[in-house]
Amino acid sequence: xxxxxxxxxxxxxxxxxxxxxxxxxxxxxxxxxxxxxxxxxxxxxxxxxxxxxxxxxxxxxxxxxxxxxxxxxxxxxxxxxxxxxxxxxxxxxxxxxxxxxxxxxxxxxxxxxxxxxxxxxxxxxxxxxxxxxxxxxxxxxxxxxxxxxxxxxxxxxxxxxxxxxxxxxxxxxxxxxxxxxxxxxxxxxxxxxxxxxxxxxxxxxxxxxxxxxxxxxxxxxxxxxxxxxxxxxxxxxxxxxxxxxxxxxxxxxxxxxxxxxxxxxxxxxxxxxxxxxxxxxxxxxxxxxxxxxxxxxxxxxxxxxxxxxxxxxxxxxxxxxxxxxxxxxxxxxxxxxxxxxxxxxxxxxxxxxxxxxxxxxxxxxxxxxxxxxxxxxx
Length: 378
Prior knowledge:
Rossmann fold; single chain; 44% helix; 3-stranded parallel sheet; 3 domains; alpha/beta
């Protein structure tokens, strides 16, 4: 019955087996066994084997197949539902780093942890801990910096830049020590129970702050707040914006200077782009920074290549091939800098760059969009 309901919600019954989904699947294209069509047809057949299929957690849920499907099958929604059903049966993905990141997420879901969530804030940044009109949602970037220090990950610089930009606009945002993981990865790996614990806590936290606007630099947090938290929001919820959307609205209020010309290229995150349709704001922001010349990669906007990060359950040789391919595309533009709008994109692309077998053929400087704008403040 649950499989039948999943098929109905995802419109898998509309599939006429054309194969365009599998032909467009990044993992399948680089040699992986993942085939969206197999999951769709398996669901339609009603067999429980689809839940134990070893490729269920290989899907990146990037949404590229949905842009090619002629009958609008919601494949990412199907995969998420199948993973929830599989999780109930004790089927989980093999997560790298000993599953440490997932353990931290579940610890936060259950509460009682003492987090140093504000240690990254310098004295020059003005923030509030409890009440305010604007809530800056940090996400798990501080954990990423700690886990991946060997990759020279600097995701927290994007958060610092965002707060600095808010301050430059006369805003003192709430940055809460009680914020917890948004639950994105747990939800997409099938652990809805832990996700719901996090969702209820976070929604209550922001509601109690009195914030009318929530801004985040994380594409996955944005997708989670804007779409997946909807059932938990009560009353008048805050407006929810990615930092690129916020800056696009307020760029004219910032005094920016140029320091010569600089060629950049842009990574479109799957969650920000294909999932939410936010393509123009990052480009509008870059166009407003003096001296910046945007050079688009071969695959951009709806056709952008995924960083292959997924939910920390896709770190295999196929992911590495996709990351290397994306970095080659970035280098081919002649850009000096790769701008990201999602911390996970930065982490996974940096990981690929640190492969000693690749040399410097795929190396390129990388910064968060907020860093680029904050660096141009007069």
